[in-house]
Amino acid sequence: MSTLDVRTDLWDAPAPPRPTATAFDYDVAIVGLGYVGLPTALAYHAGGSRVIALDASSRRLRTIAARGADLIDSDRERLDTALRSPAAFRLTSDVTELSRAAAVVVCVPTPVDARQVPDLTALRAACATVVAAARPGQLVMLTSTTYVGCTRDLVERPLRERGMEVGVDVFVAFSAERIDPGNVGFAQEVVPRVVGGATAECEERGARLLARYADRVHRVSSLATAEMTKLLENTFRAVNIALANEFADICGALDVPVTEVIEAASTKPYGFMAFYPGPGVGGHCIPCDPHYLLWQLKALHVDAGVITEAMTRIAARPRRVVERIRDVLGRAGKGTLGARVLVVGVTYKPDVADLRESPALEIIDLLADLGAEVQYVDTHAPHIHLVSGRERDSLADPGAFHPDVVLVHTRHHDSDLGWLDADTVVVDGTYRSADIAGRVLL
């Protein structure tokens, strides 16, 4: 058994001796080891880079060291390999270690607050730390999705204020992450990366860094272009999901099967891309990223009516789900007060343990506010803490709850619905659970 298998304070271990033959001891440092940062660190290590993997949370570091992080199988294998080579993959919380890496990549969350205003707290802190630790010759790259001009404001300008000439002394680039948690169909190395730099030399160095693991790197002319590219990607998805949800409501009113319509439209080999309706949108991208653009445009008095309406509709979707559940209960002669509602799956997408922005959390709170007794079952989320302060544990025996109505919110591949009673009313929030007899759609 290696030392890494038994130590819980491995990130406080003495650093390996500094080699004298090279200017930097490590090729890249990853700041932030969440759903993006950890897979990114592992991809670089698998590509042959020497990696510093840094996170401020000792709990997160212990989870990673114990091999308990939520990862797809291929990344679990990469983590096991990385932890067995501490000289080339160093877990740490020591920010002074950043000066030992030729490149520093910032991968921290950029959420929005309850008013849909960008929360830059983590990003500002991370960038300030990286700028303070920067040394000549380093490349600093942001991957966190944010507003256009953020890399200039939080990295390039502060470095210049330190007296460093960007493009000569230090180098600055932006390349937004393109990780889809839980998606085994697209390995990181096969997804093209877009990069822009503060100068031509910054762009060149950023492209070379990404090429350490990515098969294809697409260069753009500026930091701002790279930042806007990511905003377009996720705003495009948000608008089309809002449209798919609207079509689901329209098809419901006209008694037309929406999924059959989408599948039929998908046979067209050009000009159409399938998006499916659901109970809402969660995760770290779609519910958040377009708000960074809208926030910036508001200050510039630029109208973005289509995007604004789409995000308004997305935000309202959980309430639409609750209204549908109330309608279903009413048709069964029951009110919401005292009704027993069971939610199947509370993570934001199948086969991940990620609860960020999950519509299920808001749906549970809204139903509880109306007096319903709400429980859930989810093998990937044994415990949840809601915005209201309520807490719930996943039911060990959901059948024993005897729900009046079941909402299928997220179906993991290991979801067992054998406990469903044939007489139980099931609201299918996925629109794709045709195997459940007697289901009704949102």
From TrEMBL:
Domain UDP-glucose/GDP-mannose dehydrogenase C-terminal, chain residue ranges per copy: 342-433
One Pfam family here: UDPG_MGDP_dh
Source organism superkingdom: Bacteria
Keywords: NAD, Oxidoreductase
Record's keyword annotation contains Amino-acid biosynthesis: no
InterPro entries reported for this sequence: 6-PGluconate_DH-like_C_sf, NAD(P)-bd_dom_sf, UDP-Glc/GDP-Man, UDP-Glc/GDP-Man_DH_C, UDP-Glc/GDP-Man_DH_C_sf, UDP-Glc/GDP-Man_DH_dimer, UDP-Glc/GDP-Man_DH_N, UDP_ManNAc/GlcNAc_DH
Name of the protein this chain belongs to: Nucleotide sugar dehydrogenase
Source organism (scientific name): Microbacterium enclense
